[in-house]
Amino acid sequence: MKHLELDLGERSYPIFIAPGILADGGMWQKYIAGSQVCIVSNDTIAPLYLARLKQQLSGKKVCEVILPDGEAFKTLTVLEKIFDTLLQENHNRSTTLIALGGGVVGDMCGFAAACYQRGVQFIQIPTTLLSMVDSSVGGKTGVNHPLGKNMIGAFHQPNCVLADLDLLKTLPDREFSAGMAEVIKYGLICDAQFFSWLEQHIGALMARDVELLSEAVYRSCVNKAAVVAEDEREGGRRAILNLGHTFGHAIETAEGYGNWLHGEAVGAGTALALALSVKLGWLSADVEARGITLLTQAGLPIAPPSNMNVDQFLLLMGRDKKVLDGQLRLILLTGLGEAVVSSEASVELITEVLLAAGVGA
Amino acid sequence: MKHLELDLGERSYPIFIAPGILADGGMWQKYIAGSQVCIVSNDTIAPLYLARLKQQLSGKKVCEVILPDGEAFKTLTVLEKIFDTLLQENHNRSTTLIALGGGVVGDMCGFAAACYQRGVQFIQIPTTLLSMVDSSVGGKTGVNHPLGKNMIGAFHQPNCVLADLDLLKTLPDREFSAGMAEVIKYGLICDAQFFSWLEQHIGALMARDVELLSEAVYRSCVNKAAVVAEDEREGGRRAILNLGHTFGHAIETAEGYGNWLHGEAVGAGTALALALSVKLGWLSADVEARGITLLTQAGLPIAPPSNMNVDQFLLLMGRDKKVLDGQLRLILLTGLGEAVVSSEASVELITEVLLAAGVGA
């Protein structure tokens, strides 16, 4: 079993990475605060893994909330179902919520935990590659608003994260690829060695070799944990984790949540960020090409949707949280494994890059 | 001008208490973070004071959200209106929200600030006595759920609190009395000297003498600040601020939010807590009588509504946040100015006290 610690002072917590860990309740039961547990899952994951999880919770008072699957349901209205159940079942401040699902379930369960009675404890059991390497780590929780993704939320750290690689066996190919977008991101923004390792093993990773996947998830989490420990509430450096995300959020919003998966939008957004970095003269065309190749090998789109136009892109990017007093701040690369947060890319330059990528005028 | 500091490390903030402070923007403008401001108020207060506030904000990009007035609208659904406006107006992470209103507005505005883009800054301008002495101080924010009051929320501290005593001139008598319930509470739970001072000045206070009111608000805030500084997230001692509140919440829930004002329910709840403390042999009948007299002089109800019965009371009290793993914890007095959090009152004893107060069997 691999194990790392996210170091956040009194909010520190462990991340455990191993096949079969879900069924090893003896190891992780100590992270449940009291006698009450509420499992939050969705209607795709619950039939597969809910029973296995509940077997580990004998002796606890367990209830469950099964949400409809998909980013389209990551709303305040659906969130309220979790509060309904918690109150109907008389859950008190010492209850523990468990997120069993992908990023949407984790974000919603975490946000419910942040808000229920002004904060209760929770555990993340991510069931997708994307949530194992990204959304379950770092305490960002929340829901979408029709006018912007993740616009309503909280920073709320879990008690622990359990990444059970066996759960990836049932993950659809498209979602697996979407997760790889975030894995590749860590290489690009802060770990050149990891990027080379990914280039070397991309074939076996895409074939879901459990040993290699375990290593990829571990190195992704180590990178994320280091960035988050430095800047928990995204005052500065943490923003580099959003490489490709400002472009990506615009794509997701324009296409409707769920039509493009988050990781797919990040893939195309990363390609745009690479192109923009080259355009600024900060990055070599060679690194851009290696990035594009790896994204392609991971089965990801590298161009934005052709039905979007430049104005729509710029408008939706302007709504992104990385905007500070009207200044659009983007994550760009100055080398392989070296990212910066910058306002230097002009609207003209961004427009050029978008047009070159096939976006309508 | 009176001024005190709520000491919470890096989340510390000042509370300013003075007549006319709303119009003294030069003094408090430095507490606005960036160039964007969103004022949250309600349709009773906005016609009275919104223009006066906006005059102080020239040079800022100001928008406003006017909520319907009343506890019945303290819901997630109404909260969403604040997010709608913030996003429509492109407010970013450096925006500052300003709560201009009573407890409902302050709780909702504060919760919106806690959640918008995972947390932005806000300022409290309480317009009721209750919110000046209680809800605007200490960082508790949130909304109600049909099954319980303040069940969804966050701890989120404001940048500053501006208590303008002139605003109390338009406060209806019933709401003024409701605020006095919390003022009297501080005397009962932790400040016997203040309690005696209140007994001495209750006539002039009810006539809204500004000098005396200023002192009453100041001493209330000093008491609250001391308790909150010791226990920001209500792990222990902060719970004493809830004297009368577990009974009170049951009343509010049973009668429908807004039919009994929060302070009125707390008044009746405090009378029940005093009676229970005497029943346990912890408090003298003399102190109970002094408490009842002061509550009565403040125009507060001292008996619960006659249409409630014991089972309903106990059920609704069981949903209160002070319940820990099934144990009902109540705030009780062991003397004037001395409160404890206790699970020692049995259901039988609570039932006796409720029956004696006229609640149905």
UniProtKB/TrEMBL annotation, chains A, B:
Protein purpose: Catalyzes the conversion of 3-deoxy-D-arabino-heptulosonate 7-phosphate (DAHP) to dehydroquinate (DHQ).
Entry protein name: 3-dehydroquinate synthase
Pathway participation: Metabolic intermediate biosynthesis; chorismate biosynthesis; chorismate from D-erythrose 4-phosphate and phosphoenolpyruvate: step 2/7
Residues given in the record as Zn(2+) binding sites: 182, 245, 262
Domain 3-dehydroquinate synthase C-terminal: 179-323
Family classification: Belongs to the sugar phosphate cyclases superfamily. Dehydroquinate synthase family.
Coiled-coil ranges (or none): none
Species for this entry: Zhongshania borealis
Cofactor entry: Co(2+); Zn(2+); NAD(+)
PANTHER family, per the entry: 3-DEHYDROQUINATE SYNTHASE, 3-DEHYDROQUINATE SYNTHASE, CHLOROPLASTIC
Listed Gene3D superfamilies: 3.40.50.1970, Dehydroquinate synthase-like - alpha domain
InterPro entries assigned: Dehydroquinate_synthase, DHQ_synth_AroB, DHQ_synth_fam, DHQS/DOIS_N, DHQS_C
Annotated cofactor note: Binds 1 divalent metal cation per subunit. Can use either Co(2+) or Zn(2+).
Gene of this entry: aroB
Superkingdom field: Bacteria
EC code: 4.2.3.4
Binding site for NAD(+): 69-74, 103-107, 127-128, 140, 149
Localization, UniProt: Cytoplasm
Domain named 3-dehydroquinate synthase N-terminal: residues: 65-177
